[in-house]
Design a protein that fits this description.
Helix content is about 80%, strand content about 0%. The chain contains 3 helices and no strands. The protein is elongated, with a radius of gyration of 17 Å.
Length: about 90
């Protein structure tokens, strides 16, 4: 059963990576005022798949806490934001 849990975690990780790339693509399309409906629809499908995988993971006995956005970004990103704000305010 442990192999099943690890396999699901790998799928979750890969899907999250794909979602980050697709989200960046959607932001780029929005920035350039282009149609992003197909990409957004795909992203919603990925979110449903992620929800299904998490359900499968829990049903297989996965009990670890999955990291949320704040944990994945971490404090190093917060420091980058502060530095960016300082650089912008100096202009």
């Amino acid at each position: 059963m442990d192999n099943r849990i690890n396999e699901i975690r790998r799928k979750i990780s890969a899907l999250r990576s794909e979602m980050v790339d697709l989200e960046a693509s959607v932001r780029d399309l929005i920035t350039h005022d282009r149609d992003y409906s197909e990409s957004a629809h795909s992203l919603l499908g990925m979110r449903l798949e992620l929800k299904r995988l998490i359900g499968d993971w829990k049903a297989a006995g996965g009990g670890d806490l999955l990291p949320d956005v704040r944990e994945r970004v971490g404090p190093s990103s917060a420091r980058k934001d502060v530095g960016l704000k300082r650089a912008v305010s100096r202009r």
